[in-house]
Write a structure and sequence with these properties.
Rossmann fold, 35% helix, globular, 243 residues, 7-stranded mixed beta sheet, alpha/beta
Amino acid sequence: MASLVLFHNCYRCTGPAGDNAEDLVLLHGWGLHSIVWDDVMPDLLQHFRVTVIDLPGMGQSPMPAGEYDLAYLVDQVGAILPSRCHLLGWSLGGLIAMQLAATRPAQVISLTTVATTPRFVEAEGWPGVSSQLFERFQEVFDEDAEGTLIRFLALNCKDASTVKDDVRKLKEILYFCGLPAPRALRGGLHVLRDTDLRATLATLAQPVLMLFGGNDNIVPAAVMATLPPWPAPLRLSIAEQTS
């Protein structure tokens, strides 16, 4: 019996490089799917051949068997990566991209993360989401998964000048493929809660670009000040607003 394969789609580079363009793989965040990248796709396709992937149980992807943890996500995504590629991951997708860069250094050319830190939950000397707040979020999720997901999307847009339009657009994306599987949402929260890739990030040999939103209410740009100098070429950048 053939194993289930995640939904993925590859788009040809529209720029001068054409069929000779390098591959870029996009990994979305918790609760959404690959359509969230649509606004930036035209610019990315000017330079790369772009592959989008829906994480297990989200968007159009099935839920292959296995424990829904970081190793599972890395295995499922890694099974369909191009032989050589750049990785761009947002939030949960950023954690997956970090681990792929660490475990497949010959395959991953570079790493870019958006609103991602190697550890999302606070620790001694490390800013992050309060562990008590995260536990409360999980409790509320268990009571009302759909409502919690929508409030999470709204929190992403909270301080943007276009907050109403941004929330409306994210809700349209959310429902476009139907709601994610509850197991995928719950497992994704556990990955965000339990993962600590600070030591892993410090070992990466690839160029790394970490992008943060100046108005991000979930992954504040202030975390940049706590990131030590890594051996890999590392660049940090703050966008004026996140949506």
